[in-house]
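Batch manifest line 261
LIGAND: magnesium ion
JOB: complex structure
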Amino acid sequence: MDRLEKALEKSRQLRTTMAPRPTPNSGASAAGGSAPTFVSSAFDSALVNDAQMEQNRIVAHRTRSAEADVYRQLRTHVLQIMNKSGFKTLAITSPRYGDGKTTVALNLGISIALDLKQTVLLVDLDLRKPDLHQYLGVKPQAGLTDYLLHDTPLHECLMRPPFERVNILPSGSRLDNSSEILGSPKMIALSSELKSRYPDRLVIYDMPPILAQDDPIAFLPQVDAVLVVVRDGVTRAEDLKRSLATLAGANVIGTVLNDCW
Ligand SMILES: Nc1ncnc2c1ncn2[C@@H]1O[C@H](COP(=O)(O)OP(=O)(O)OP(=O)(O)O)[C@@H](O)[C@H]1O
Ligand SMILES: [Mg+2]
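JOB STATUS: finished
ARTIFACT:
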């Protein structure tokens, strides 16, 4: 069993043995009723409920929903391209802050995992502004930067949201020199391991914006494909052109027009 597999297995075992408990500010009181449980590997469990996910626009798991259908369409397009080309890793970026990268990354990841044949690992690579976990209302005790800088075991960094076949590697403690860290040998080794180990697993990296930080450029050589999010009525044509020019050496498989309803 390799290191990552061991970490996931340990995380799974620990989840089944630890009783989840609600934490303050988990949002559990917002909707009440049947809240799916979320247990982070650090055992700081929280309750994530439908109202909270709705507020954060996490909708892909809904069965009858126009928004979820849009993510299913996106999933189909993405999987067709990824499978045809044998791609295993997908970076999601955009020209600027707030275009919808994290929203798209989470919804796409959940939608892909609903496909049954796929498992998904979502990795928060926005190390300067980590927030992917906040969309699920949890506060992880460790994440990628703790693994990279402090040798925190990987199993203590992984989390599993209340969606089958989805795991999350949160970014961990906020970092300012993140492009150096993302280009470090330990990060390159990890990304290579994440990519190659399981044939049915897709790794989705939630990246920083391409025009605001150099992190994506430092890390993009490690990914197979890139999806660019643009926000309707917000993203300027010039910014999109500059972003695509910056991504010239990467394998851009498409753009997602977000917030166009
Ligand atoms: N389609 C949409 N309709 C309405 N609001 C949206 C939509 N997509 C995202 N948002 C909201 O816009 C805000 C920014 O979205 P998100 O965090 O996904 O963007 P981001 O590109 O990841 O931002 P950052 O660059 O800061 O990481 C969030 O409040 C999110 O809920
Ligand atoms: Mg984001």
